[in-house]
Model the fold of this input.
Amino acid sequence: MDKKMWNSLAETMLKLFLAMAVGFFCNKKGMLDTASNKKLSGLIVTVTCPALILASVQNVDAAQKGQVILLIFFGLAMYMGLVLLSWVMCRVMRIPAEKRSVCQVLLIFANSSFMGLPVAQSLFGDQAVFFTSMLHLGFNLYMYTLGIHLLMKGSGRTGKSDWKSMVNAGTISGILALVLFFTGWEIPPIVHEGIAFVGNLTPALSMIVLGSMLAEYPVRELFTDKQMYKISLLKLIVFPVLIWLAGRLLFPDAQIQGVILVSTAMPSAALCVMMANKCGSGEETAAAGVFLTTILSIVTFPLLCGILLL
Done:
């Protein structure tokens, strides 16, 4: 990693975590609460993130079509590998049966949208947003099928896959971006500028909401779960390194290699907590995992980037 990229990384992390601190402060002062977090999260997920993805398409070189197809299949295989690895490691670490399913979900699903997209954009440019969305195209597919199955299993019940939830703004924007990329259709400049303007709200807004959400977690209790530190080690260091090594074998493009590392080294997805609440299974464990991995990523993420993206 050269000096310029180091400066970019430091500047990006500083801006994102300052925004998170603002959200934390606003929640503690009563300016943000659970209801506003929910509404703003909806705005990010259904409006600003999809806009960011669509705006990124026109910055991608059409000659990379083969790499994009490979990246999509790599992403689907990656999630299958994470399912297997999480199942094995939760048993190796002797995670209690009542927590095992939630811990698997925490290990499988990363915060690739709220944090991954803005960080990738800041480090590698707008086209990195497109690559990130293609890599994680399977996120919704796995979360609303396998994720629900695991969480319902953890609560001692059986649940059906939520197929309707998979058809959401994130999935639709990813597919639209894919269509625009492969057909070569261009969004009219004035429309593209408007979409990009809305999409660029994502980094600050997402981190403010994340900070506000973290402010609602019982911090002292979350830091006492020793097993969650083991989960964090796997999530933030071991799994990203393994995936990055596999990606290096398939992708000669340094930018795509960087996107793979950046998006998989993110903390556990905040959606894990929402889904745990919905399924009535391990809400406290999910909250502990999201909070701890997010806090620890302040250290682990720059460390990984500094060592591996040389």
In short: The mean pLDDT is 84. The CA atoms of residues 84 and 108 lie 9 Å apart. The first helix runs from residue 3 to 28. The radius of gyration is 18 Å.
